[in-house]
What we know:
Elements (H helix, E strand, L loop, with lengths): L14 E2 L2 H15 L3 E6 L2 H15 L6 E4 L8 E3 L12 E7 L6 H8 L2 E11 L2 H6 L3 H6 L12 H12 L3 E5 L4 E5 L23 H5 L4 H10 L7 E7 L5 H14 L3 E5 L7 H13 L12 E3 L5 E4 L2 H9 L3 E5 L6 H6 L6 E6 L7 H14 L3 E7 L10 H10 L20 E5 L1 H6 L1 H13 L6 H9 L3 E8 L2 E12 L3 H8 L8 H9 L9 E10 L8 H13 L5 E7 L2 H9 L3 E9 L6 E8 L2 H22 L8 H9 L20 H11 L9 H13 L8 H12 L4 H7 L5 H19 L2 H8 L3
Helix pairs in contact: 1-2, 3-14, 6-14, 8-9, 9-10, 21-23, 23-26, 24-28, 24-29, 25-26, 26-28, 27-28
EC number: 2.3.1.193
Keywords: Acyltransferase, ATP-binding, Cytoplasm, Nucleotide-binding, RNA-binding, Transferase, tRNA processing, tRNA-binding
Organism: Haloferax profundi
Amino acid sequence: MTSSGEDTPSGDDAETLDVESLAATRRDEAMDSDQRRLLVFAGDRDAGIDAAFDVVRGADVPDDEVTFVTTREGFRFDRVEPRQASRLLGTTRTIVVLDAHEDFSANTLGRVAGAVDGGGLLVLLTPPPDEWVARRDSFDERLAVPPFTTADVSDRFRGRLVSTLRDHPGIALVDLDTGTVERDGAYRQGITFDTSLPTVPRERRFPRRGYEDCLTADQADALEALEALAEPGNAVVVEADRGRGKSSAAGLAAGSLAAEGRDVVVTAPGRRNAAEVFVRTERLLRELDLYDTGSADEFDLSSSRGGRVRYVPPTEAGAAAADADALVVDEAAALPVRLLTSFLDAPSVAFCTTVRGYEGAGRGFAVRFRDRLDDSDHEVTDVRLDDPIRYAAGDPVESWTFRALLLDARPPVAQLITEATPHNVEYRTLTPDELLADEHLMREAFGLLVLAHYRTEPDDLARLLDAPNLTLRALTYEDRIVSVALLAREGNLDAETRRHMYDGGRIRGNMLPDVFTSQLRDEDAGVPVGYRVMRIATHHVVRSSGLGSHLLSAIRDEFDGDVDYLGVGFGATPELLSFWRENDYGTVHLSTTRNDTSGEYSALMLLPLSPAGHTLHDRHAAWFVQRIGDVLGDALSDLDPDVARAALASVGHSSEGGPGDADDEPLLSDYEWRVVVGASYGPGLYTTAPGAFRRLALAHLTSPERVSLSDREERLLVRKVLQTHPWSAVADELDFHSTAQCMRALGDAYEPLVDEYGGEVAHDERERYQ
C-alpha cells in the first residue's frame, strides 16, 4: 500500500458539511484497505442521529448490517442499549453507531469498537466537545460514591478522550452546530503486511474443512498446534490481540475433536465469552454433515459420532474436564490462577488468552500462571496470532481504542528495574493530573494495575482518572514504577445512608462498611473513615523482594492518625492471607458464598490506625471468632482447611489488644475439661462434648504460635472438629491408614492444647492417665 498522508482541515480550512459524501469517501477508503474508519459527529443529539442516517445512506450499507447503540427507541435498524453492549461481542457489523449522549462509558466504547468489520465505519455521536467534557451523566453518578457527589467527579477521562479524537489518524470530526468538517479523517496506510492465505497441512489430523475455514495463515497455524489436544499430556497456549480469531480457532479444534467422537469441555469467564467457540464448532460439524440435531442447546453440541462439546462454568470445569478428553479455556487471562491450576487435571488443555483487551490481560496470565504450567506434566506448545481477522493490519480504529482506553498499557521493561530494592526506591503519590501530564507514567502505572487483577476493564481507567474516592501510591526506581497500590476511601457516611445500608440498600464504593452493616448488622460501621487497598501489584521481575510490604508500610505511615483504618478484601488463599497477616492486617470476615468467577471465598481484613479503628476492628474480630466455628460447620464446610487455618491465624492483629491475644483463654466448664482430657489422654470420646473441642480448636488456630502442632494436625482440627466432616472422609483426605488412626491422631493433637490452656481441673485429670 502507498501513503498519501492525512488531510486534516482546521480553522479557516474547515469544509462545509456533506455527510453522505464524507461517509461514502471514508467507506470507499475503508473497503480499499480492509480497515475501518471512525466518524465523530459532535453537537445536538437529534442532529447527530440524522447525520448517522445520512452515513448509512452515503455508505450504501443494508439496514441489517447496521446497529445503533443508544437509549433512544424507534429505529428501523438493530438497536442495543449501551449497558447491553456486550451483546455485540463475537458479532460483526458494517456500521455501528454509538450514541454517547446518554449512558456512555469506556466499557461500552471498547465493546462497540470491536464489533465493526473491516471496510466498516464506527460512528460516534457526542455533545459538543467542551460541553461533553464538562457534563455529568449516569456514569459520573456511578463514580460519585458516598459521601461524594457528582460535583466531586472530575472530567479528565473525557478530556483525554476528546484530545485523542482531535489528533488521531483515521478519525473524521464533524461540528454539527456549525455545519463544518473539522477533520475529514482521510488516511492511507503506508505499511505493507503479509496477506498470505492459509494452507492445509499435508500431514494433519483434523479435517481439511477446518483448515479451509481459517481466514489467515496465523489461524491455520494455531489450529495445527491445537491438534495436540487429541493426545493426553499436552497443553497449548494460544495468545492474540483482540480480533485475531483465537476463539474461532478454538472452536474449529473443538469441532474437529467432536468429529472424532471426543468429549470436549469448554470454559470461559461467562457463557457469552465462549459464544464464538460454539458458533465455529457447530458450523464445522454441519459442514462435515456430523451435527447431531438433538444437541441440548447452543452451548452443548453433539456429533453423530458420539462426540460432545459443552460449556461448563469455570468453578466446575476442572472436575468436569478430568473425565473428558480435552478442555478448552477461552479468555484464560480473565480467570484467577487457582482455577487455571485446577484445569491442569484435564488430559489435555488449551489456554486461549487475549494479550491486549478488556477481556483480560495476557501478560497477567503469563506472569502469574505460566511457571506453574511449565512445571506441570503437560508438554506445552505456544502459538501466537498477529494477523487481524476482521480488518487489515494498521487499522486506525484499533490503534485509537488501544490508545484511548490504554488496552496496550505495559509496566516498565524488566531490565530497567532489576536492581530495585526496598532501600533504593522512592514512595510517591501519583495524582491523576500527574498521570495525565506524563503518558508514559500513566501507562506504567495502569499496566501494573492490570497485572494486579484478573479482570481489568476500560472503566477502570476512567475511575482512576476521575473517581473522587480513589488515590494511587507507588514505589519508583529511577523514575520507573516498580510497585503500585490503588486505594479507595470509605466510610464517613451519614446516619441516613447507614440506615439505608442496614435496611438492605446497596451503597457504591464502600465495600467494607457495606458488608459490616448489611450482612454483619453493624449500623455504626460506616462512621469511621478508612482506605481499602483495592489493588496492589509489584513488577514480576522484583517480586519476593519485599517491595509490596514496603509499599504497604509507607502507606500505613502516611495515613496513621489521618484515617481510622486500612482494609482489604480479596479471594482468600493461604498465601494471600499470610501476606496480609505479615503486614499486620487482621481477619474480620469470610464470605459464606463463593465468587462465581474465581470460585474462592472472600476475606476481609483490617489494620486499625486510630482508637475508632481499633474499636471497629476488635468488635468485628470478636464477632468473627464467635461465629466462625458454627459457620465452618455449615456454609463454609467445604472451605479449604489451609484457607481456614490462615484466616484464623490472622485474627487479632491489633496493637491495642483484641481477639486472638494470649490473654483470651477458651471458656470450658470443669466438666468439659474432664471430657477433653479423657478424649486426649484417656479413653473418652470427642463426640461427648464437641462444642468444647471446637472452642479449644479455635483458641489454638487463632494463636497458633502458643502451641506447636503439625500442618496435618491443624487440618485435622479444621476438617473434623470445625467442619464436622465424617471420620472416613477426613482419614482419606489426610492420608491416615484408618479411621481409628485418625481418631487417635485427634486425641494426640489435643494433648498439647490441654497442657497449654487447661487449668487445675484439667491438669489434675491429666495426672490420672500419666
